[in-house]
């Protein structure tokens, strides 16, 4: 950093942009990284709850109950998923994450009565054993997929897209393809693996309907079928998922994380989670399926206020991914020196694809993996989920609601014009909803 205060950095060609240009010129390679979008976009931070006063009375937190339970997948499934809290753990693959990290996610979710999700690469023994409720992702790559695991799952999530890269596939670089990862994916050890961007056996919504029926028949119509979409055209994608027979729609906004993909995808494809929620809810209402087909919202969920605001806009539950990894130790300050030795720092580490994560979470290195104690990490995740739940309950009570699902758009106001337009709630202090 220069001490010359007369210098003015270009907004167009700032230091990060200059560094990107130099790196591209030197290597001839595009930038790959993990994590989600870093650009500032309208988010749940741009909404506020109005709270109760004369027209509505708050509930007393120490005496009056505020429910948090939710049932997912009762539309067709014989055995819908019943969760004690409306916060689930998003799909993250074994391969991207270590086996200990996957076990920790299962332990933490189970302690709070909620679900975790497999991800690309199949189901590990540890995560099935320690996950009371496990959602099995059915992805375009089919890595690790087999009918037995479909039947061992509690629900199936058909992944059509991911918030960090709608329309794009995934990457797992060779340094993370250990013998076990390779065996589960039935691919060579140490070789880069590309996950396809679309399912090989369908070309449109009619094929999705056929696939959903096949999955129901394989699992005796017991398991709820989720359809996960990256937020790009959430209104039409939600309508088509409902038409195809989904029990649950999972909508993942552009702030959602990824293990690894091109940065140009992460930052420039998809729409913010805030904008996606409103359109998905509108589609469910248009189809007369709101609350019949549940909506799970993902992509940058961090706090109980994010949870409560998503529910107030009409979601039934949320999913956390990046925040769950942080809770179990990702980017922990105790490893700052090692992160710096890798050219990063604790709190900034994003090279999940490299397999050198000092915290032992996004790696297959046998020694680094030992740094994750699944029991201790699981307890930290449970603590975090407990705090999110209590924060959401606090906000619901403050708005006079005896269940977090009773929160509604009328409880919200926006503090920016952009957020008001995206969320469809009035700009604070006015009755004005842009575009209405």
UniProtKB/TrEMBL annotation:
<dbReference type="InterPro" id="IPR002932">
    <property type="entry name" value="Glu_synthdom"/>
</dbReference>
<dbReference type="InterPro" id="IPR043578">
    <property type="entry name" value="GltB_archl_type"/>
</dbReference>
<dbReference type="InterPro" id="IPR013785">
    <property type="entry name" value="Aldolase_TIM"/>
</dbReference>
<comment type="similarity">
    <text>Belongs to the glutamate synthase family.</text>
</comment>
<feature type="domain" description="Glutamate synthase">
    <location>
        <begin position="357"/>
        <end position="401"/>
    </location>
</feature>
<protein>
    <submittedName>
        <fullName>FMN-binding glutamate synthase family protein</fullName>
    </submittedName>
</protein>
<dbReference type="Pfam" id="PF01645">
    <property type="entry name" value="Glu_synthase"/>
</dbReference>
<dbReference type="InterPro" id="IPR024188">
    <property type="entry name" value="GltB"/>
</dbReference>
<feature type="domain" description="Glutamate synthase">
    <location>
        <begin position="74"/>
        <end position="329"/>
    </location>
</feature>
<keyword id="KW-0560">Oxidoreductase</keyword>
